[in-house]
Write a sequence for this structure.
């Protein structure tokens, strides 16, 4: 065969090896290879480079994929073990935390004086059952009373508002500590709603709203 035929055949060998040539081309190359050792050697070399055993070529990749899959499963399990209990703990802590009700959410209707001049009734429309009172004495003639409502975060979200009016009683005009067997009654009394942090132990009354102020008669 001529050199030019070998050059042409050489260009076709890879396509011939992959069996992507037409039947006529395949027959032509096959006939040439019977007579040309040089082209036959080239074809053998091409096949040697292309024919990598499957078990050698794919098994390492399969092993890598299995390792990656196992690692991903392990990471997911660790995340579930750590994240879920942590999330539940944080949600539980938040839900059970006691917070003071902001003044605009108290539904306080007003304050009235009771039969005794130191009994005051604070009327409001809600289902709040928890409240706290703090007394602050200014001097011998003046008393300030601070109170606040509080709920847990869970109660604030899920306990419905009760439209019925209710009230709480505050002691005023009198000192809570008996002196000489008698209570000291203050001349001037002020009642505040305070919104300091009920759960944080603060007692600075930094946000207070004056609800009632009166001077005792006589």
């Amino acid at each position: 065969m001529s050199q030019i035929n070998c050059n042409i055949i050489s260009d076709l060998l890879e396509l011939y090896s992959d069996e992507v040539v037409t039947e006529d081309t395949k027959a032509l190359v096959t006939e040439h290879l019977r007579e040309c050792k040089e082209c036959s050697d080239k074809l053998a070399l091409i096949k040697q480079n292309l024919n990598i055993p499957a078990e050698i070529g794919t098994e390492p990749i399969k092993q890598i994929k299995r390792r990656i899959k196992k690692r991903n499963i392990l990471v997911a399990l660790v995340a579930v073990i750590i994240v879920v209990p942590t999330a539940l703990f944080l949600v539980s802590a938040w839900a059970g935390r006691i917070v003071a009700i902001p003044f605009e959410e108290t539904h306080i209707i007003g304050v009235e004086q009771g039969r005794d001049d130191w009994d005051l009734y604070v009327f409001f429309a809600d289902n709040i059952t928890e409240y706290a009172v703090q007394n602050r004495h200014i001097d011998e003639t003046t008393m300030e009373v601070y109170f606040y409502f509080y709920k847990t975060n869970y109660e604030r979200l899920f306990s419905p508002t009760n439209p019925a009016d209710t009230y709480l009683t505050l002691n005023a005009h009198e000192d809570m500590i008996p002196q000489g067997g008698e209570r000291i009654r203050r001349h001037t009394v002020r009642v505040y709603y305070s919104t300091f942090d009920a759960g944080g132990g603060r007692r600075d009354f930094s946000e207070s709203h004056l609800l009632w102020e009166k001077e005792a008669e006589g």
Summary: The first helix runs from residue 3 to 17. The helical segments are 3-17, 23-35, 37-50, 54-96, 153-158. The chain has three domains: 3-50, 56-96, 100-215. The mean pLDDT is 76.
